User: Fold this.
Amino acid sequence: MDMRIRLKEALKTAMKEKDATRLSTLRLITAAIKDRDIAKRGEGENAEVTDDEILAILGKMVKQRQESARVYEEGGRLELAEKELEEVGIIEEFLPRQLSETEVAAAVDAAVTAVGAETIRDMGRVMGELKGKYTGRMDFGVVGPMVKARLG
Assistant:
């Protein structure tokens, strides 16, 4: 199902159930997608944000909230950290299942083979291949060093 449709249906359900936290989180997601739509129009593109771009937006939102929760915990603001982690849970419902470490390692090996990478100079091509196939399903902050180690 199209991500926009899933989000719209979840928003309607949250409104009917009067779930304030879920509703506000879904509205934040919708606003982020609309912002990206507007930015694309400003760049001269006429198309809407694709599902892959929506997954990237959601992944970024999860990382932001995890970082905020960590900062709140370090500052002793546990109620704010808990709120951030609750939002993470809601956002992750729309993300595909994350790949395990062994699946990530296999994907890296397959991408290296697919692009014929031999040196660290080929890292960009490998990362492009992985992002094309696995956006939203793996943490590229963790994958980057793995690719670097594999090629270096």
In short: Residues 33 and 54 are 7 Å apart (CA to CA). The helical segments are 3-17, 20-42, 51-74, 78-92, 101-115, 123-134, 140-151. The first helix runs from residue 3 to 17. The mean pLDDT is 89.
